[in-house]
Amino acid sequence: MSYDDLRHFADSWGLVFMGLTYAVLIGWHFLPHGRGHSARAATMIFEPESDTEADHG
After folding, report:
1. DSSP of 12-24, one letter per residue?
2. Which region holds residue 47: left if phi is over 0, alpha if psi is between -120 and 50, else beta?
3. What is the biggest distance separating any 2 CA atoms in the chain, rounded to whole angstroms?
4. What is the pTM of this model?
5. Could you read off the pLDDT of 11-35 as tens digits, one per residue?
6. Which of 42, 19, 16 is closest to 29 using CA atoms?
7. CB–CB of 28/34 below 8 Å?
């Protein structure tokens, strides 16, 4: 396989692969089980890590 063949393959199918990967990763958050994980991640910074932290803040 020459460099030109590899470059042509990467330009065509590499773009398709990256587009599909992007769509899957973005769509993952809209699935029913993904919504709970996203909501938990969004509010994680507001939860105290320990009891002593809750007393100080």
Report:
1. IIIHHHHHHHHHH
2. beta
3. 65
4. 0.51
5. 889 889 999 999 999 988 888 887 7
6. 42
7. yes
